[in-house]
Specification:
By secondary structure, this protein is an all-alpha fold. The protein is 58% helix and 2% strand. The chain has a domain at 57-310. The protein has helices spanning 3-18, 42-46, 50-55, 58-71, 77-88, 95-112, 155-178, 184-193, 198-201, 221-232, 237-244, 253-270, 293-301, 305-326, 331-334, 337-350, 352-374, and strands at residues 40-41, 215-216, 219-220, 375-376. The strands form two sheets. A two-stranded parallel ribbon has the order 1-4. Strands 2-3 form a two-stranded antiparallel sheet. Strand 2 (215-216) and strand 3 form a beta hairpin. Helix 4 crosses helix 7 and helix 10 runs antiparallel to helix 11 (237-244). The N and C termini lie far apart (54 Å). Bound molecules: fe (ii) ion (2 copies). One fe (ii) ion binds at residues 159, 194-195, 246, 302.
């Protein structure tokens, strides 16, 4: 881009904003700075709820604002309203039908279809304390299981915001390189919602860790519940199908069969025919044909785990060693509430990835320096 066209573009954006026209820009993240991180005493972490941690986290609040601003650019008003409603209140709306007598029949059907293995009927579906209230707000939910990629209060928000940015970047690259005008609404909605029920599945426990996830249709149960929720809330089939591709792509018959299984399992949860709803091809064996490119973009956008899973796994033993040395935590503390509060606070304020980046460039001593500046030892 020449300097002149860059200036023209800025002027165009400015005029568009001034005129109140819809500018197809996504939200903007101000960027992470250590200067924004609040300092607390180590005992303060123990007293903090997940809600308090995300309240004090600029990085989580910024990511939350980014998600709101970006979903506000969804062109279809009905889709925009439903997506905003889902992250404002991620209530599992399909739960009531199952709790009111449908659960055993659904469990039997999933068993007969070989879509549920190793989940006893009594353990099927995560707990719901109050049917009218979502098990936890989207903003406090972790973005993964407790030993995995975004395992901290606000982790779902940072994971989802990053994914939306990645998916929109792919969208832009395809547009500029191939001239392919993909459906931007599908790309945003499928990515914003792809893990919507992680808050239900990964509820925080009293010891500061999160519930252990079970498997459904061969993948983490949150995936099937999240797809079912999008279908239940009436989103178009293209969005639900793209969302189903987050965990695998339909590029080979073997991979596609997994996606088909997740859509079939979601349809069983809802008591609907997936082919009749346009979620599968008429024969029920593949995704709707021809396969849409947005399906692959949703899948590609959910790939930060390649680095963020091992990053957390390499980081945790380093943080335990630092907790032992600098914070005098005992071996029991390291496997309980005290260390959990310490890591939850640290991750929620700066993200696990920022800490890993720092560790990977400055070693354990550099990591200890950042942690003790943020969380002051007693
Ligand atoms: Fe997922
Ligand atoms: Fe994800």
């Amino acid at each position: 881009m020449t300097e002149k066209t860059a200036v023209d573009r800025r002027e165009f954006m400015r005029l568009g904003m001034a005129a109140g026209t819809v500018v197809m820009a996504a939200g903007v993240l101000p960027g992470f700075s250590w200067a924004d991180v609040k300092t607390v005493g180590v005992d303060d972490c123990l007293a903090m709820s997940p809600a308090k941690m995300v309240d004090s986290s600029k990085v989580v609040q910024d990511a939350w604002q980014y998600l709101q601003a970006t979903l506000a650019t969804i062109g279809d008003a009905q889709v925009r309203k439903v997506v905003a409603g889902m992250i404002a209140d991620p209530l599992p709306t399909f739960y009531a039908r199952l709790a009111d007598g449908g659960k055993e029949g659904v469990w039997n059907e999933l068993t007969a279809e070989k879509l549920i293995e190793g989940i006893a009927l009594a353990d099927f579906l995560p707990p719901v304390a109050d049917r009218k209230k979502s098990p936890q707000p989207f903003i406090t939910a972790p973005g993964s299981g407790y030993q995995s990629h975004h395992s901290y209060p606000g982790g779902l928000v940072t994971h989802t915001a990053l994914n939306v940015r990645l998916a929109l970047a792919i969208h832009q690259c395809y547009q500029e390189t191939y001239g392919a005008e993909l459906d931007r609404d599908v790309i945003i909605a499928s990515q914003v919602l792809h893990d919507i029920h992680k808050g239900w599945v990964f509820q925080w426990g009293d010891d500061g860790s999160s519930r252990t996830e079970l498997k459904l249709a061969g993948t983490g149960e949150h995936h099937v519940y999240s797809i079912a929720e999008s279908i239940a809330r009436g989103l178009p089939a293209e969005i639900c199908v793209a969302q189903a591709c987050a965990h695998n792509h339909p590029g080979t018959a073997k991979d596609e069969a997994e996606v088909v299984g997740w859509l079939r399992a979601a349809a069983i949860l809802l008591g609907i025919d997936p082919a009749a709803k346009g979620l599968l091809a008429a024969n029920g064996k593949t995704l709707p044909l021809p396969r849409r490119m947005e399906n692959f973009v949703c899948h590609l956008g959910d790939h930060d785990y390649v680095l963020s899973v091992p990053a957390v796994q390499w980081l945790l033993p380093e943080m335990q060693a630092i907790a032992k040395e600098k914070y005098r935590m005992s071996d029991d503390d390291l496997h309980g509430k005290k260390f959990n509060a310490f890591r939850n606070y640290a991750f929620s304020q700066v993200t696990a990835m920022t800490l890993y980046h720092h560790y990977s460039t400055s070693g354990r001593a550099g990591l200890a320096e950042k942690l003790t500046a943020m969380i002051v030892p007693a």
